[in-house]
């Protein structure tokens, strides 16, 4: 799906993408740079930026860094100073998923997700960032399901509560089961499940439904949210958005892959 967002002012704006080397973060960075009116700060936990120039998005990012339209910043969400360095001067912060969570370590995950969110909020307020957009998850409404969903629900609540404090506008997007280029979790998990033979068993009535969202639609939603926080502030600021439309027949495509 080609992303076309109307911009009335084509003068460059500066944004920071926290988690910019993750699955969705990479795609968001690439799309922002392709739009042409963004200066993008890519922030993530690795100490240095490792680019694979055979990959089109990495090659494009390399050119953007060379021209000064992008930069890389090492990010530690537990170190307030590193967050400030990454976002200082940005008008909007896109807060994507962490790339280095250890699912078996509750305390570590709590620090990264919950304390990290607190630190990002404080840094945004200190740096006078205008907009903070959080990539949450539809799983937060079922916080009993797993530890990460519960912690992400806490982080989301903190970010929404920070709305309209010191001029900061916030919102959260809750995509479901995101898949697309670069996905290393959902589709590989489904394929492994199908090969195991357990996918043929149905527990319950079989009438339960689940949404799947193509990664490009999530990126489109983030960019639209950034615009809407200005143009439709009353309807967007401090709110969550659960449904992200997808033009693909996702369920059928996944079923076909599992049957082959």
From TrEMBL:
Keyword DNA-binding belongs to the record: no
UniProt superkingdom: Eukaryota
Pfam families referenced in this protein's UniProt entry, alphabetically: 3Beta_HSD
SUPFAM superfamilies, per the entry: NAD(P)-binding Rossmann-fold domains
UniProt keyword NADP present: yes
Ranges where the 3-beta hydroxysteroid dehydrogenase/isomerase domain occurs: 16-142, 143-252
Keywords for this protein: NADP, Oxidoreductase
PANTHER family given in the database record: 3BETA-HYDROXYSTEROID-DEHYDROGENASE_DECARBOXYLASE ISOFORM 3, NAD DEPENDENT EPIMERASE/DEHYDRATASE
Protein name, UniProt field: 3-beta hydroxysteroid dehydrogenase/isomerase domain-containing protein
Protein source organism: Hevea brasiliensis
